[in-house]
Design goal:
Keywords: Amino-acid biosynthesis, Aminotransferase, Cytoplasm, Pyridoxal phosphate, Pyridoxine biosynthesis, Serine biosynthesis, Transferase
Number of domains: 2
Largest sheet: 7 strands, mixed
Number of strands: 12
Cofactor: pyridoxal 5'-phosphate
Mean pLDDT: 97
Family: Belongs to the class-V pyridoxal-phosphate-dependent aminotransferase family. SerC subfamily.
Strand content: 5-15%
Helix content: 25-40%
CATH superfamily of the largest domain: Type I PLP-dependent aspartate aminotransferase-like (Major domain)
Order of helices and strands: HHEHEHEEEEHEEEHHHHEEHEH
Radius of gyration: 21 Å
Function: Catalyzes the reversible conversion of 3-phosphohydroxypyruvate to phosphoserine and of 3-hydroxy-2-oxo-4-phosphonooxybutanoate to phosphohydroxythreonine.
Modified residues (N6-(pyridoxal phosphate)lysine): 198
């Protein structure tokens, strides 16, 4: 039976949503949904009003990421987990190498392992709490890893593997919880892809990718291969990147998208760009994350889970608690006081807090959260 602790209202965050995904949605996004939804919700996504909305997202993200010449913003249905399967069908030609250092980076590798038309992937593993980027490997045509491992709070560089250009191997970076929160030079990637329910404060069910000319060429080449007689490659329409590219160029998606997700995403992209774009959002996330890391390092009962300061995420912060303190009880008391979604990743199984510090989260609310945690622990 958990003990009840009432946190004084004066200590609590103004907005107490700290989820690592779904993440906080700003009130302005809800207003945009209420205002724009009156004319957009329940209408065809292949007509101009919704297509103009999609165009604004594509243009806004192109500006936000300072998209290199020839790169395109492409949208598709299904979220980043669908993109893993799509990449197996439409971007990996024969064999890929993966960095695997947490639940989500491992899942893409598992998808490639199960694809019957691909050779077994090469896996570069690291223990949770650290990362390992794949190294140059012969006969590999794609290198894949996560910029931010949501399950552990580890951030990895998004950069080309040495020699990958000479191999004509693509670099595919899962940026689901990193995009918008961590710095990136998109020219270092061929597919920098994410779902909008993290830093972009929207709902899931959609994937967005910044694609290089090489990735676009690969998608068309593999689609053509699948259409040839005798090919063993399977590219179903839902997993066809060529189809997603062609639909995105028309400012639409293959299947009906959630219009509410598009409205909230468009508002978030507008807000981020108006405040200073990627440089502003990454600095804001770094400020919030460092408040938590500095507190944990000075605390008698809390410690940053990720040992290497250079690998500590500025998007998702993981903090281990001393064994004498039950993290589940702390989390339950915080939730009873309206402070939400501070639990560690369930499969990691640590006595841990996990706190999303995406751009929508106010740094002042992070400071208030720290005060609340200390208040609760002192009384348990």
């Amino acid at each position: 039976m958990f003990k009840t602790v009432t946190i004084p209202e004066s200590l609590r965050p103004h907005d107490a949503r700290f989820g690592s995904g779904p993440s906080k949605i700003r009130p302005e996004q809800i207003r945009a949904l209420a205002e724009g939804g009156a004319t957009l919700l329940g209408t065809s996504h292949r007509q101009d009003p919704v297509k103009h909305l999609v165009a604004s997202i594509r243009e806004g993200l192109s500006d936000f990421f300072s998209l290199p010449s020839g790169y395109e913003i492409v949208l598709g249905n299904g979220g980043a987990s669908a993109f893993w399967d799509l990449a197996c069908a439409s971007l990996i030609a024969r064999r890929a190498a993966f960095g695997s250092y947490g639940s989500f980076s491992a899942k893409f590798a598992q998808s490639a392992s199960s694809a019957p038309f691909l050779d077994d992937p090469v896996i570069f593993e690291a223990e949770p709490g650290s990362y390992r980027i794949p190294e140059r490997t012969e006969h590999v045509d794609a290198y894949c890893w996560a910029q931010n491992e949501t399950s552990t709070g580890v951030a990895a560089p998004a950069r080309r593997v040495e020699g990958s250009l000479e191999q004509k191997a693509l670099v595919l970076v899962d940026a689901t919880s990193g995009a918008g929160a961590l710095p990136v030079d998109v020219s270092q990637c061929d597919a920098y892809y994410f779902s909008p329910q993290k830093a972009f404060g929207s709902d899931g069910g959609l994937w967005v990718a910044a694609l290089s000319p090489a990735a676009i060429d690969r998608a068309y080449s593999l689609a053509g291969e699948a259409e040839r007689d005798g090919s063993t490659r399977w590219v179903p329409p839902f997993l066809s990147l060529r189809s997603a590219i062609e639909n995105s160029r028309k400012d639409q998606t293959l299947n009906t998208p959630a219009i509410a997700t598009l409205i909230m995403l468009a508002e978030q992209v507008r807000w981020l760009n108006a405040n200073g774009g990627l440089a502003w959002s990454t600095a804001r996330c770094a400020r919030s994350a460092n408040l938590l890391y500095q507190w944990a390092q000075a605390s008698e009962y809390a410690t940053p889970f990720v040992n290497d300061p250079q690998a500590r995420s500025h998007a998702v912060v993981t903090i281990d608690l001393d064994g004498a303190i039950d993290a589940k009880q702390v989390i339950a008391v915080l939730r009873d006081n309206g402070i939400l979604d501070t639990a560690g990743y369930r499969k990691l199984g640590r006595n841990q807090l996990r706190i999303g510090v995406f751009p929508s989260v106010e740094p002042d609310d992070v400071e208030a959260l720290i005060r609340c945690i200390d208040y609760v622990v002192e009384r348990l």
